[in-house]
Amino acid sequence: MTAIVDYGAGNIFSVKNALDHLGIESKLTSEVSELEAADRIILPGVGAFPAAMEMLRKSGLVDTIKAQAKVKPLLGICLGMQLLFDRSYEFEECEGLGLIGGHVDRIDDPGLVIPHMGWNKLVYNHSCPLFDGLDESYVYFVHSYKAFTDDSSLYAYCEYGSRVAAVVGDGKFVYGCQFHPEKSGSAGLKMLSNFCAL
Amino acid sequence: MLAKRIIPCLDVRDGKVVKGVNFEGIKEVGDPVECAAEYDRQGADEIVFYDITASHEGRGVILDVVRETAKKVFVPLTVGGGIATVDDIRDTLRAGADKVSVNSQAVKNPQLIKDGADIFGSQCICVGIDAKAISPNKWTVYINGGRIDMGIDLIDWVKKIEQLGAGEICLNSIDTDGVRGGFDIPMLKAVVDAVKIPVIASGGAGKLGDFADAFIKTDCSAALAASLFHFRELTVGQVKDDCRSKGINVR
Question: How many Å lie between the alpha carbon of A54 and the closest alpha carbon of chain B?
């Protein structure tokens, strides 16, 4: 069973719809016991970093997610990906889950349209099981902040002014997508199905 | 590189897709869920449902349409028409929409943009605008489907909504809408130059080259059309092939 963390932030129904469509058993939950029992965990999220961390803390899930990420696959989506890093500077400095080294800051380029909204092409940097069998590499982004991380954690990026981290990971169980796989047509569905096969 | 988006719009009344050929003679052309799925197959980058249901009782129907579409179509969905309160935004997003488009109500109550952006994030607040020229390079904002001139300067308005937290603008030109002679390039250019947020061109697409023309002549992020795709005069795929052949980056 794939657990989708329901902590009050965002696009959980879209993720659930996509997994249902793929025939993958999943459950929206904020129960510690269900996250512990799950085969893998998806951490969705839209909105602001500090508010999302606060909601995770209030749900009592921070320690559980950190512990489970050492023993089973975890996929953060959009803001859920950003939460995986050490810290963010959205509005104020705010500590994240610290599962991947790096930080999150504003996409800062006076010449760019912000938010980075729409379909952008993945450039693969390291092989990753999420990319297996992908025939299309345009995926749907919508965000104004981006992650800064080491090359070893950067599995794929896209070009928007400069490099934007698109798929990240810790080399073991933790994965993150800045784009929305649940809204990225066949490419996104393929990546979700690849994750759920881990 | 970020691709230019091609967005088909479905006008929906009481749960059925319609297109007002003229104001009196709205005719039904189909099931919105099926139409959305077809546009997805053609390569649409997003799909917009514009709810023109007049009655309050009919409002729940559009949410059912979104709910059913969101189970089948995995590209972003936007819903516009009649969204007046934070609760309307919440209900629409919970039904499966990724963005809402607010128009007349945002003009009457600009706080709706700020409240929506603060609670749900700027990324899901698109502000729709109907505007018309009063002199060359000067436009005013209209409400109620282009029927009432609010006397608000278009450029002042787009700067204000950006400040309030809008994530995107869908700019419809009353002058070019329905004329099928191409998008309103001067208006589009003026708005794109005034803000940093993405701008969608709307109103006036009548032939294949009109989309590429908007992308070549302005830095708009996306182009939207309804009837052209509706009556199958063009497919989204044909529009993208034309853009690609002219060096425009599309998915």
Answer: 14
Show the domain range for B63. Answer: 5-245
The type of residue at A178 is: Q
Q: Residue B123: which of A21, A142, A189 has the nearest Cβ?
A: A142
pLDDT tens, N- to C-terminus, chain A (198 residues):
999 999 876 667 899 999 999 999 999 999 999 999 999 999 998 778 988 899 999 999 999 999 999 999 999 999 999 999 999 998 889 999 999 999 999 998 889 999 999 999 999 999 999 999 997 799 999 999 999 999 999 999 999 999 999 999 999 999 999 999 999 999 999 999 999 999
The size of the A-B interface in CB pairs under 8 A is 92
Instruction: Indicate the CATH number for domain A2-196.
Output: 3.40.50.880
Which chain B residues have a beta carbon less than 8 Å from that of A142?
A: 76, 123, 167
- Residue A12 φ/ψ region, left for φ over 0, alpha for ψ in the -120 to 50 degree band, beta for the rest: alpha
Please report the ipTM that was assigned to this predicted complex.
0.93
Domain boundaries, chain A: 2-196
B130 flagged as catalytic: yes
Query: What is the spatial distance between Cα B187 and Cα B203, in angstroms, rounded to a whole number?
Result: 11
Residue numbers of B between 60 and 89 with CB closer than 8 Å to A: 70-72, 74-76
For residue A120, give how far its alpha carbon lies from the nearest alpha carbon of chain B (Å). Answer: 4
Strand ranges (E), chain A: 2-5, 26-29, 40-43, 74-77, 85-88, 94-95, 100-106, 116-121, 123-124, 138-143, 145-149, 154-160, 162-169, 174-177
Whether B1 and A159 lie within 8 Å, measured CB to CB: yes
Cα separation, B235 vs B215, in Å, equals 18
Look at A183 and B75 and tell me if their CB atoms are within 8 Å: yes
Minimum-distance CB partner of A113 among B1, B45, B196: B196
Q: Give the CATH number of the domain where residue B132 resides.
A: 3.20.20.70
- CA–CA separation, B80 vs B7, rounded Å? 14
CB contact under 8 A, A183 and B124: no
